[in-house]
Amino acid sequence: MNRILVRSPWRKGVRGVLAAGLSALLIAAGLGGATAAAADYSQTAASLNASQAQFSFTPSTPARYVDIHYTGVPGVGQQNVRMTDNGGTWRHTVGSLSAGTVLDYWFTYEKSGPQYDTPHFTYTHGGSGTTVASPTFDPPGGSYPSARSVTLSSATTGATIRYTVDGSTPTASSTVYTGPITVSATSTISAIAIKSGSASSPVASASYTIGSTQATCPAQAEVPDFGPNVRIFDPGMSASSIQAKLDADFNAQKDTLTAQFTERRYAHLFKPGVYNGIHDNVGYYTSVAGLGQNPGDVVINGDVTVDAFNESDKGVALQNFWRSAENLAVVPSSGSTRWAVAQAAPFRRMDIRGGLQLYPASYGFASGGYTADSKVSGQTASISQQQWYTRDSSYGSWDGGVWNMVFSGTSGAPANTFPNPPETTLGTTPVSRDVPYLYLDGSGKYRVFLPSSRTNASGPSWANGSTPGSSLPMSQFYVVKAGDTAASINTALSQGCNLFFTPGVYHLNQTLNVTKANTVVLGVGYPTLVPDNGVDAMKVADVDGVRIKGLLFDAGTTNSQSLLTVGQAGSTANHSANPTTLQDVFFRIGGQIAGKATNSLIVNSRDTIIDHIWAWRADHGNAGTYGWAVNTGDTGVVVNGDNVLATGLFVEHYQKYQVIWNGQNGRTIFFQNEIPYDVPDQAGWKSPNGLNGYAAYKVGDSVTSHEAWGLGSYCFFNDNPSVNLYHAFEVPNRAGVRFHNMVTVSLNYKGTITHVINDAGAVTPPDTRPSNLVSYP
To answer: What number does CATH give the domain 230-433?
Structure first.
């Protein structure tokens, strides 16, 4: 098979939409709901006598049902019970308890149609009951030029906070917090929250450096020169002149055989206004975006299109990578916009005034995909798309599903029916912060908008007006263009500048070091960072609020230990109030050049949000750039930080574990994976535990809390079809580690996966049919 010509005919085995429902089973198992909002309910657990405890749940909105799930009763496995409604409070009594019995419990409840899952709670019979929420700090720890007044709080009503400032561990006899603490010198505040009848919270700490002077970015142009690869269109320009430029770029970038690994990159930016008769066909390494503050500020009466454009594509869109559309309103000429893409092709902040077709006009196969913060007034149809993830959006309706369709915070999404049809629907997204983006203000100056964080988010951030947030002037951004070096970029960072990368390929002979809190690194047109001589491409300090968006990291020919590292090893600072976000950040090992990197992404910082990445070890490309001993890469993503959330995680073809998750309280919504095609033999491809192969997604053995929804892993052992992977997902067997809605597939039946997760789930069947598992444990 020529993997340059056609990205694997193996993906041609499944068509159509599966039918039938498992909603009753999901309800009974307590699966598939979104993370609940604390304001939605109150809950209590109380001892009735020496052997019984009563659990109560009161929803703020009347519920059609409430289920309780619990583990820990001696000699009994997990129980899933429909609670009894008593005047709006739902109750259930658990027996067979003795002093010291510890129960892990949580609830699933209905609210206005969707169902929601609460966090897990702990009850100790005859003991301390539930655990108090840890204190939080406002402002968060960090470096400040002068004294700060720090407020402590706990989400647990009635809790008392005790704290220390001398580096010691706080106890129940430490100083009681009664009001804001003035921090006038460098110090660390450590605190616990205590409440009678509940277990004390874990210790939380925040370190403050006082008197440090942050560098100030030398003033940059507010209307900068974005270089030769950024096209800026104005509604005053003639449609014919705009179209001529769009067509020229598309003709250069459309061919899968010649443009997929070119170094040309472009951005098409439209100033606010209305554009009539414009048709932007989007080729490789091309970003299309509006320059309004909101999507409706730029209206295209025409089309923004991706299709299986080339004869060599043979009607499929399996290699339609590395292109994007953002922050536009489109009134499609035919009634529907076509966005038939594969990986690394985000569709963000789009207002489609019609339908959206995610499949090629030929109905050939596609392997996407990602939508966020968007609205489609008509129907969105996936049809031949193998998998897709939609976050915080609004659809008129949805049609389609092959293997793994996942939705969070999306109105108009289908019901939670995995696997028949294979739809996983969560009512909200637990935490989201939409991407930074370039726009023009009313005076004609460029600024970068920084959307605010949202918890339990649902629907587009701009649905009820402008996206909430703040903005920065371009005078605080260093614009990276052709001719810039690692030294010049690092100088700008050390001076306190944010970075705006224009389209191009940038070779780095030293690591880019992002050390300042709240730094923004924003790229358009797929700017590509290539580390030379084995350096790591970028490192981010363990600081608050860094935002990285729109970069492609392409491994150099000398091995790098990591392409991007967030936080130093052992980082423990709490960033929950202002996390680092990685969005539309892509990694490539091989394909363009014979790249090598042990790891693509390492996340050590707590609370990081990974929002749409594709980490890819190439299975095809330029001659001499791919092969088992050529483009080497052990692992795509390593997460060591606690409380990390991944929304849209695409990781493919690494030679060992695809994802290793060592941090506590991790969550993933949507995972797409392919195991490496080119494993030469079974004897040389066994994991440390002696099992065949390396799992696609491994949760560390010491992890006690982790949860994931909507995960797919596919094998295509093309070089040696006798190769087997024992299981796609490997996790510790603990009540706090829970996986929902998983699928494995053997593409064209090239090799097998014996189990879905651990020892559960059936072997992959022939004929490219899926093996599904609704829940584990």
So the answer is: 2.160.20.10
Q: Which residues contact 573 (CB under 8 A, 6 or more apart)?
A: 140, 141, 206, 207, 542, 543, 605, 606
Predicted local confidence at residue 39, as pLDDT? 62
| Nearest by Cα to 284 from 303, 257, 311 | 257
Strand ranges across the sheet with 437-440: 437-440, 446-451, 469-473
By annotation, the residues acting in catalysis are 674
CATH topology of domain 136-210: Immunoglobulin-like (2.60.40)
134: how many CB neighbours lie within 10 A of its CB? 21
Nearest to 665 by CA among 716, 738, 740: 738
Domains 41-125 and 136-210 share a fold: yes
**Looking up tokens 């400032």, which residue turns up?**
165
Model pLDDT for residues 575-623, shown as the tens digit of each residue: 999 999 999 999 999 999 999 999 999 999 999 999 999 999 999 999 9
Strand partners, 723: none
Q: Which fold has domain 41-125?
A: Immunoglobulin-like (2.60.40)
Task: Tell me the whole-structure pTM to 2 decimals.
Answer: 0.76
Kindly tell me if the per-residue pLDDT of 14 is higher than 70.
no
Q: Is the Cβ–Cβ distance between 351 and 334 less than 8 Å?
A: no
Mean pLDDT computed over every residue of the chain: 91
Q: What are 173-223's pLDDT values in tens digits?
A: 899 999 999 998 888 898 888 988 787 877 777 777 777 556 789 999 999
**Does 141 score more than 80 pLDDT?**
no
Where are the domains positioned within the chain?
41-125, 136-210, 230-433
